[in-house]
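Problem statement: downstream parser choked on a complex file, so we are re-checking the raw output for the zinc ion run. The parser issue turned out to be on our end (a line-ending mismatch), but while we're here, posting the original submission so the record is complete.
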Amino acid sequence: MGRPCGRSILNDIGDEVNQSLLHLYELQKVDSKLDELVESRGELPERVHEMRHGLDEQQDQLGQVRLDIADLDVRTKQLSDETVDLREKVERYKAQQFDVKTTREYDAITFQLEDGQRRLHNNVENITRMGIELEGFRTDEQQMAQDLSEMQHELAEAETALSEVLADTEEEEKRLLAKRGELVKQIQGFHMTIYNRVRPAKAGIAVVAIKNGVCSGCYNAIPRQLAMELRKGDKHTVCEYCGRIVVGEPLAIAVDGEPQPVASEVESGEAEE
Ligand SMILES: [Zn+2]
């Protein structure tokens, strides 16, 4: 609505194909701004994503170590209880050795005593081994909990930085995306198909204007006859060198406005900032 200049040229250009091209050229500008905007956010969004993932993994691992510790604690407790019982039994057998009447009874008690002593010895060894294991787990747990809290701290900082970066660009992104949605509705399917195919392959630039007879995407000359037709503003071509869609200058001017002298553009740009 607020582009009387663009609209009048658009009316001159006329037919549907050219209106579609005009919107395609405008879409390219919007997408380039969106690309710049995403790039201005740098690696922070990706980094925050990775940090969140790393934090989840660390939490899982810490949870697992805590389960292992609890399990080992229970088993140690069981063995300790058993050891108390075994000690009592061994003492009892020792006492009984003195009360036996026959060699047979003596042998039987001795057998039970030795069995009890062996089991007691094994238990004590196992408890010692598990104690060492438990100590290792506890050291791991402490280190992991400390790492986790550092990671949480770093993530919180990165998230704050990210939300600041996003706040600067979010409104602009919304505006551009809304505009993009409107433009796409007005572009013919075959134009979108070429656009979507070429853009990822050509550093994000799929539509360019012809300038001084060359494709402004790759600076190769456009054949003279085509260039003349483009100059009339009622045709587009696909650059035979880079594959980009090339539109005529009248169409580009309808979107960009008349080219301004370079010096005054720079001055006004600086004054605004
Ligand atoms: Zn080209």
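For whoever reads this later: The chain has two domains: 4-40+188-272, 44-169.
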